Amino acid sequence: MARKKFTKVSSLDPAILSAACVDAFRKLDFRVQVHNPVMFAVELGSIITTGSFLWGLASGAPAEPVAFTGLVSVWLWLTVLFSNFAEAISEGRGKARATSLRQSQAQVTAHRIATPSFTAPSEDVGSGSLMKGDLVLVKTEELIPADGEVVAGAALVNEAAVTGESAPVVREAGGDRSAVTGSTKVIANEIIVRVTASPGEGFLDRMISMVEGARRRKTPNEIALEILLVALTGLFLLVVLNLYPVTVYSSDVTGRGAPASVTVLTALFVCLAPTTIAALLPAIGIAGMDRLFRRNVVALSGRAIEAAGDVNVLLLDKTGTITLGNRKAFACIPAAGVSAEDLAITALHSSLADETPEGKSIVELVAKEHESISLVLPPDSTIIPFSAHSRLSGVDIGGVRYRKGAPDAIIALVSGLGGIVPPDMPGIVERIAGDGGTPLLVSRDEKILGAVQLKDILKPGIRERFFDLRKVGIRTVMITGDNILTATAIAAEAGVDDFYGEAKPEDKLRIIRENQAKGYMVAMTGDGTNDAPALAQADVGVAMNSGTQPAREAANIIDLDSDPTKLLDIVQIGKEILMTRGSLTTFSIANDIAKYFAIIPAVLMVMYPGLGALNIMNLGSPYSAILAAVIFNALIIPLLIPLALTGVKFRPMPAGQLFTYNLVIFGLGGVIAPFIGIKLIDMLISGVFLV
Amino acid sequence: MTGVPATRFRIIDSVEKKIYRFIGTDPSDEQDWRGYAMAMLIFNAIGLAVLLFILLAQGWLFLNPENFPGFSPQLAFNTAVSFVTNTNWQAYSGEATASYLTQTAGLAVQNFLSAATGISVAIAVIRGMTRVETDRLGNFWVDLTRITLYVLVPLALILAIFLISQGVIQNYDPYVAAQALDPAAGVQTIPMGPVASQESIKELGTNGGGFFNANSAHPFENPTPLTNIVEIAAILVIAAALPFTFGRMAGDRRQGFALYAVMVIIFILAFAAIYSTESAGNPLLDGKDISGDYLEGKEVRFGLGPSVLFAMTTTATSCGAVNTMHDSLTPLAGMIPMTLIFLGEIIFGGVGSGFYTMIAFALIAVFIAGLMIGRTPEYLGKKLEAREMKFSLVTILTPNVLILVFAGIALVTEIGLSAIFNPGAHGLSEVMYAFGSMANNNGSAFAGLNAADPFYLVSGGIVMLIGRFVPAVAMLALAGSCAKKKTVPPGIGTLPTYSPMFVIWLIGVIIIVGGLTFFPILAAGPVAEYFIMIGGG
Questions:
Q1: pLDDT band at A226 (very low <50, low <70, confident <90, very high)
Q2: What residues contact residue A546 under an 8 Å CB cut-off, 6+ apart?
Q3: For chain A, which terminal residue's Cβ has fewer other Cβ atoms within 10 angstroms, N or C?
Q4: CA distance A107 to chain B (A)
Q5: Are strands A475-479 and A498-500 parallel, antiparallel or unpaired?
Q6: Of A419 and B146, which is predicted with more confidence?
C-alpha cells in the first residue's frame, strides 16, 4: 500500500534545535517559568547566587572565591536553561507539524445553499463565516470548507491533509462513511455537506492545538506528582534554611569555620530539589502525545492517554480488529467418492469470475494446492454473479453449471435439478460451522461435490499481543454479531478472555457500564454512529477517522489510519508516559544521597574535621565538591532528555516484576550513578582549575 | 471495630449504653470526615481545658497530701498539651510537683483518652481506605468509648495487677520519711502514690509520662527485669496489633502483614545498630580500670541489652517512657533513638497515630511505585490522586517542618541557646531531639536541656499541638476522600502492595524521607560528636 506518513521530524533537526535554544531563554520569563514551580525556585536561586557573585566582585573582599560563586551561578542558570530546553525541544516537533497542518488549512470559498439539492441556488461565502448547520455544495477539485457530514451524493476525497494518506477515500451520504473533514479535497463527483463545526473548532483546529501543546492542560496525575515534587522542594528549602543555624551554632561552639554562605546553601538546595524530574516532567507528557501522533493517532486530551495506561478491559470488535475484514477459504472438503481435484476444479470455475473477497480467496487456495490447474475461464462461459437473493454464484461452461453458495441455496438448486444430497454432507457442514467457519457448498449440475471451508483469519501477531496484555493484567473482550458457535471458535483461537456473540452495537454501551460498575477502566474502538454512546461512555474511546461525525465527536482519541489494532499501541504509550514519570522521580530522589555526601562534609568539615570521613568520594576540596554536585545536577538533565522523549520502554510482565526491574535500574542506578558522576567531574575540576 | 460482640460483655455493654445516653449520641449515627474530625477536636479541647484547670488549681484541691502548689501557667499549658497529645513530654518532676489528684484524675485519665483518640482516628482512616462509595467514617464517640472500655481498661487492669505483684506501689499515702542505713545520709523522703494504675496505661497507650521523674528507671515504676520486659511488650502490643486489624478490615491480611513487616525489619535493624554501637563502649575509657559494659546512665539492675531495647522501643513507638538516660548513650547509639523519632514515629509508632502515619508513607511509596509500573497508582483499589498526595504529605511533613523551623530558631536565639547545658555537637543533638520528640509526640528527652525554660515550654506546647492534630485531621480528610471512591478490583497488573519487594521499597522511602530531611542535623550532631570521641577532632 502506498502509505505516506507525515514527514518524520527528528528532534535533532537543526531548525528545531536552534528554535529550542531560543525558547529556552524565552521561558526564563517569570510568568512562564512559574508554571514549573520547582524550576522557578531554581531560577530564583540562580538570581541569588548571581547577586552574591556580583557583590563579591564589587566589594573586592569576597568571603569565598569569586570563581566559585561565579561558576555555581553559571551552572544554576544552565540547570534552568536545560530544563526549558527539554520542554522546548519536545514542543518543537509538535510545532513543526502544526505549521504544516496550518498551511493546509486554507481559507476557501464555499458555495452555501439553502436546501440540500444539487440544483439549489448557491451563495459564495468565505469558509470562515460558515456556521454549524449551514449546507454547502462542494464540487470536483474543491477543498471541503469545514468539518461536516455528507447529506447528499458521494465523492472521492483526498484526505492527505489530515491523515497523510494520499489514496482517496469514498465519502457518501448515509451509512458509516459520511463524515468529511475541513481542508480535505474532493477528487471526483459533487457532494452536499452539512457543516458540523463552527470556525476554529474544527477537527484540524483541535488537532493543531493538541500537537502544538497550546491547549495542553496538566493531567490529574501530573498535578498529583507536581504536589509531591513541590512538597519535597519546600522541605529541602527548610532543610537548607535549617542548615544555616546549624552552621552558625557549630562554628560558634567549635570556634572554627564560618556559617554556610548563601551560595553554598543555594547550591545545596538546588541539588536536593527534585530538579531532574521537574525539568523533564512537561517534556515527558508532550513527547508522549507526539509519539502517538507519529503513529497517526491524535489524542484530544492528555487525560485520555493517561487513562489508556490504566485500562484493564479492552472491548474489541471481532471484524477488523481481531480478524482481517473478510473471511478466506481455508480448505476444500470433498464429499464421499469425489476426488479432491474434481472438487478443486469445480470450486475454481465457480469462483474465477467472482470479485468478492471470498471468491478471490478460493482461487488463491486452489492455485496454491493444485499448481497445474489453469486459472483461465474458457471463452464460452456465462458468468452468474452473486446476488443477495440467490446467495450463490458461478459460471455456465458449455451448458455445465458450476455453482458455489450457501448450503441451503445449493441444496435447493440441486434438488430442483433432481439431484440428491450426499449422505455425509450435513455432517461436513456441521463440523465446519462448529469450528467457527462458514461452509460453502460446491455443485456441478445436480451433483454436490463437497464444501469449501471459509474461515475468519486472525490478524498476524494478534494472539501474541493479547498474551502480552494478559501479562500486564488487561482483559480483552471480543464483541461480534456472529452466532455463538462461530464466536466461541474465534475467541478460542485469538485467545481473548471473554466474548459476546450475537451482539448488537447497542450492547457495547451495556457491557462498558457493567465493567465500569465493577471498577474497571474500559477502552474501545468504534466507527459507526451507533457506536457513539459507547465511545462517550468508555474511559478511552478511539474513533476511526473513516467513521461518522458523531463517532468522532464522542471519542477522545482519533486514529487517522482507521486501524482498530492501534488501541494496543495507545495503551502502551499511556503506560510508558506514567512509567517514565515514576522512574525519573525515583532516579531524581535517589540522586540526593550522593549529593549529601558531596556537600555536607564540604560544609561541616571546617568545624568538625572528623566529618572528613563522610567524604567517601574523596573529593578534592570543599569548593570542587559543591561545584561537582551542582554540575552533575545540571548535566543529568540534557543526558536524560532522550529518555524523556522516547519514554521508558514498556515490558509485558506482571506488575510485581516490572516494579522490581524499574526499581533496580532507576532506584539503585539513581543511588550509584551520581557517586561516579560527581567523582569524575570533581577530578576534572581539580585537574583543570585547582579551585 | 466492625461490630463488637457486645452481648458477651453485659456489664461493659450497659456501661457503654449509659455513656451514649449521657453524651446524647446515637451509636448507629455515623459521621463524615468533617464530623468525625470536629468531634475529635472538640473532645480533645475539653480534655485540655479540664486538665489545665486541675494543674493550675491542684493546690486548692483534695488528694494533695504533700501540699504541692498549682503549676505555673506556662508549665500547666505545656503539661496539659503534652498529655492530651499523647506526647507526655515532662518539663516537671512528678513526685515533686504533681498531687495525687493531678496524677490520677488528670494525667492518667488523659493517658487513656489520648490513646483512645489515636486509635479512633486510625480506625476511621482504615474505614476510609476499605469502604466503597460512602462519606461515612464511623462515629467518633462510639469508637472512643469502645476502645476505652473493651481494649484499654481491661488491658490496663491486668497489667496493673501484674505490676503490683512485682512490687510496683499503689497507694494514696503521704511520702515516707526513712532513716538511711548510712547515718551520714540522714533522713530520706520516699515518694508514694498510685503508681501501678498509671504505669500500666503509660506503656499500653504509648504515653510515656512517668509518675516519677526517673520514669521507668525508678524501682517503684519498673522494679524487676521481668517488669522491664513486660513493659516493653506493653508498649508495643497495641501499636503492633493495628496492622493486623487493618489487614482484617481490608479483607486481605497480607496488606496488614506487609506494614507489620516494615515495622519489624526497621526495628530489628535499629536494635542491631544500637546494641553494636553501645556495646562497643567509649574509647576514652579504654585503659582505665573499668570492666564490663558501659553503664553510665543505665540501671545496673537491667544491664546494657534490656536498657537499649527499652530505649529503642520507647522511641520507635511514640511512647517516651525511659529506663535509660538517652543523653548518656554513646553518640552513634544515641543517634538511633533520635533517628527513630525523626522517621516520624511509625515503627509501631504511637497507638493509632503511628499506624495512620505509616499509611501516609505507604501512599507516597505506592504513588511512585505505581507510576513505575505504568498505572495511575492505587492502594487497596483506591486511586491515588492529588488530594491523597496532599494529605499524606501534610501528615508526613508536618513534624519535619516543625523540627526544622523551631530547632533552627532555638539555635540562633539567646532564649533558645541559654537552655543548653552541654555546648558543642552534643548540645545540638539535645535541641534537635527535644523538638523531634515533641513534634512527633514521643515525649522522651535527651536530658541536658533545661526543658522548664519558658521558651521551650511555650514553643514546645505549640509544636506538640500542631504535630498531633494537623496530621490527624489530614488523615481523616484523606480517609473521607478515599471512602468516596470506587474500589478497583486487583489484578495481575496491580502493584502487589504485600510483596517483599514493596516492603523493601516502603522501608527505602521511609529511610530516604527521614534521611534526606535530617542528614545535615545528624552529621553536625551525633556523627560529629562520634568523631570527636574517637579522636578525629
A1: very high
A2: A169, A176, A177, A527, A562
A3: N
A4: 43
A5: parallel
A6: B146
Q: Which of A23, A290, A317, A531 is catalytic?
A: A317
Return all residues near A276 (Cβ < 8 A) that are at least 6 apart.
A584, A587, A588, A591, A633, A636, A637, A640
Given pLDDT bands bounded at 50, 70 and 90, which one contains residue B451?
A: confident
DSSP string, A253-300: HH--S-PPPHHHHHHHHHHHS-HHHHHHHHHHHHHHHHHHHHTTEEES
DSSP letter, residue B134? -
B226 touches chain A (CB under 8 A): no
Asked if B517 has any chain A CB less than 8 Å from its own CB, the reply is yes
Given a cut of 50, whether residue A666 has pLDDT beyond it is yes
Contact with chain B for residue A495, Cβ under 8 A: no
> Using the beta-carbon criterion (under 8 Å), do B367 and A520 form an inter-chain contact?
no
pLDDT tens-digit map of A341-390:
888 888 888 888 887 778 888 888 888 888 777 777 777 888 888 777 78
Most confident of A468-482, B34-48, B401-415: B34-48
Using the predicted structure, report yes or no on whether residue A308 has a pLDDT greater than 80: yes
Q: Is residue A165 predicted with pLDDT exceeding 80?
A: no
Task: Give CA–CA dist A147/A543, Å, rounded.
Answer: 16
B372 CB-side CA count, 13 A: 28
Q: What is the mean pLDDT of residues A166-195?
A: 82
Rounded Cα gap, residues B153 and B164, in angstroms? 16
d(CA A41, CA A39): 5
Nearest CA distance, B247 vs chain A (angstrom): 20
Q: What is the DSSP string of B61-79?
A: SSS-TT-PPPPPHHHHHHH
| Chain A closest-CA separation from residue B272 CA (Å) | 22
- Determine the Cα–Cα distance for residues A397 and A380; give it in Å rounded to an integer: 6
Go through chain A and tell me how many residues it has.
691
- Are B497 and B258 a contacting pair, CB within 8 Å? yes
pTM of the model: 0.86
Cβ-defined contact of B374 to A579 (cutoff 8 Å): yes
Cα B136 to chain centroid distance, Å, stands at 28
B12 touches chain A (CB under 8 A): no
Evaluate if residue A208 carries a pLDDT over 80. no
B76 to chain A, any CB pair closer than 8 A? The answer is: no
Search chain A and give the residue with CA nearest B515: A593
Across residues A606-621, what is the average pLDDT? 90
Query: Domains along chain A?
Result: 14-96+213-293+572-687 (no CATH), 109-142+148-196 (2.70.150.10), 297-324+459-560 (3.40.50.1000), 328-455 (3.40.1110.10)
Q: Which residues of A touch B405 (CB under 8 A)?
A: 238, 242
Half-sphere exposure (Cβ direction) of A672: Cα atoms closer than 13 Å: 7
Distance of CA A396 to the CA centre of its chain: 52
Return the pLDDT at A5: 46
Percentage of residues of chain A with pLDDT beyond 90: 29
* A-proximal residues of B, 383-422, CB under 8 Å: 384-386, 388-390, 393, 397, 400-401, 404-405, 407-409, 411-412, 417
- Kindly state the cell numbers that stand for B163: 505490676
How close, in Å, is residue A649 to chain B by CA atoms?
10
Whether A317 is catalytic is yes
Cβ neighbours of residue B292 closer than 8 Å, sequence gap 6 or more: none
Q: Is A512 on the interface with B (CB under 8 A)?
A: no
- Mean pLDDT across chain B: 90
Q: Does A220 touch chain B (CB under 8 A)?
A: yes
Lowest mean pLDDT among A141-145, B47-51, B180-184, B365-369: B180-184
Helix (H) or strand (E) segment spanning residue A677: helix A669-688
Give me the mean pLDDT over the A15-44 stretch.
92
